[in-house]
Amino acid sequence: MTRNLLPALTGITALTALTGCGGKTAKPDVPAKPMNILYIMCDDHSYQTISAYDQRFIHTPNIDRIAADGVRFTNSFVANSLSGPSRACMLTGKHSHANGFTDNTVTFDGSQQTFPKLLQKAGYETAMIGKWHLVSQPTGFDYWDILIGQGMYYNPEFICNGQKVQREGYATNITTDLALDWLENKHDKDKPFCLLLHHKAPHRTWMPDSCDMELFSDVNFPLPDTFWDDYEGRPAAAAQEMHVLQDMDLVYDLKLADKENEIRSGSLEGWGRTMYTSLLSPNQKAFWDKHYNPVIEGFKDSFMRQTTRQRSNMSTSQQVNESTCLEVMSPANGGMKADKQKLAQWKYNQYMRDYLRVITSIDRNVGRVLDYLEKNGLLENTLVVYTSDQGFYMGEHGWFDKRFMYEESFRTPLLMRLPGGKKGDVAQLVQNIDYAPTFLELAGVPVPEDIQGESLLPLLQGRQPKHWRKALYYHYYEYPAEHTVRRHYGVRDNRYKLIHFYPATLDGIKVKDNIDCWELYDLKNDPNELHNIYGQRGTERLTRRLQKALHELQVQYHAPELNW
Fold first, then answer.
1. What is the fold, at CATH topology level, of the domain defined by 473-556?
2. Measured between alpha carbons, how far is 548 from 217 in angstroms, rounded to an integer?
3. What is the pLDDT of residue 510?
């Protein structure tokens, strides 16, 4: 069965069949020209680093063009804040439990229904270019050229329609080149297109293009207000391993692969050194060394040589009682004893500078694509979408990465430009399961009943649906895994959020270090989610209401209720 949807006014099957005045039947209009779809998605692009959302860190004029000429969704979220699962939700319009790709340890079932397959059947030419990250090969695409796995920033390997090929250069530029080449030389211009343009950037390890390496070098970013969060009342937040200070690797993440091998940083160090020694060409290494060698020397002067000199002049008791220093540093920090505040500030700035340099490259390349569409008369017949597979922490709570249902990773940027559509903000709660039905309705393709998302087309057209959702469902599954974020699910409405961290089992056996607890937040009075009010006197009625809403969503989506 399919949903009974009116065909979109801009879709392939859009016809006017209205009765005119005086009882005469109006002549059907000529079908509108099918609307093209350009879906640009980055990996780990935080909404905080798009100036259409937040102007504290960077100016992104080209991404902002989409917002200026279209819609900025101010309450856009994901269903599972992890790369592969998020992509599966987007392709299928279904939550992770329904599409089968719950975490990055599984393989996406490419035989299942996806929106590219449905568009393809309706006469669209479909293409997938860039980061795929779903293990299985793409299906439902007339053309695909994807990065292998996570992809590399420099000289990456691709699989082009099944054929492996390595391309020299910078991944963001190469991916854009491939997309423009497909539009210009490979696309059948007699057909409408749906192009998925997926960038690797700004995924860890934030390796900037050679032309951007000096950007932000003179900028010092203050630590976020919540950087030194003590996680009181939030055991799952305390148990994570994604803190900038303790867990961000000096060599792998922060590029301190010194030639002398004096900077040691634990299990990720080898990967960090390989990125430099094996992946960069001699010319690329020259650019790299010009920028990072002074950074490495500055770090050694500030934290290794200086600390050694200071400690040599201290008595044993002074060294033991040095309360401002880390007594036992993590392997990520080379086991150093250093001033926590100073080292945290240094690592945070290094992280932010590289991350923002990578964003600069994305924005520049988005501009290239928009310019191509405009020059070739496609901009006024193409839905342009810009989003990320999830949000990301820019030091909030002391963190990098994502995964949690807390706002910075749960919330994601979403900008859409529909020719002739609404301009301005959309405040309704939307989720990445909504993209598939949006594209289908835009194309005039019936939306299958089993798709769990809702079409955003009415919102893009400036309409106000009477029965829009009042709450969102979220579920994160990947534990035990990198960063040790515990499994959890929850519900969020326009003001409150209820989360349940629940025990994980493998082969029926409970995993050690499990956490079983509930968290409740009032996002109006506590937007930083520092105060878990679950169980506090006076919250009983609110808790029951949210638990009821959570149960209703789990029933609606046929999601596991996990005996809570």
1. Arylsulfatase, C-terminal domain (3.30.1120)
2. 50
3. 83
